[in-house]
TrEMBL record:
Domain of life: Bacteria
A Pfam family of this chain: Thioredoxin
Protein name, UniProt field: Thioredoxin
CDD domains, per the entry: TRX_family (cd02947)
């Protein structure tokens, strides 16, 4: 799968997925967001069949960010079968991201 950019209008439909979906809330001006974006891309190259990744630009899609109480970026919420199950605030290394996701695969 490829990393998909979603909007306030398409988010609900884009989130419909059996299994795990990572939703990354970010902004273009945010240096930690850009750094974490490269980590998400590396993760996606290795695990694109396991986890779907959606990105939400908080400057352009404020309603979706508000819906999930995003106050700091980057914030990444893990959804399982369309329901939020866990959240990371900040950028983390790819190994921690793998552990975070693996803990919810059961």
């Amino acid at each position: 799968m490829t990393i998909c950019h979603t909007t306030d209008t398409t988010f609900t439909n884009d989130l419909k997925n059996d299994g795990l979906t990572l939703v990354n809330f970010w902004a273009t001006w945010c240096a930690p967001c850009r750094f974490f974006g490269t980590i998400l891309e590396a993760f996606d190259r290795e695990h694109n069949s396991d986890v779907r990744i959606l990105k939400v630009n908080v400057d352009e899609e404020a309603n979706t960010a508000a819906q999930f109480g995003v106050m700091s970026i980057p914030t990444t919420i893990l959804f399982k079968n369309g329901e939020p199950v866990d959240k990371i605030v900040g950028a983390i290394p790819v190994e921690e991201l793998k552990k975070f996701i693996d803990s919810h695969k059961k």
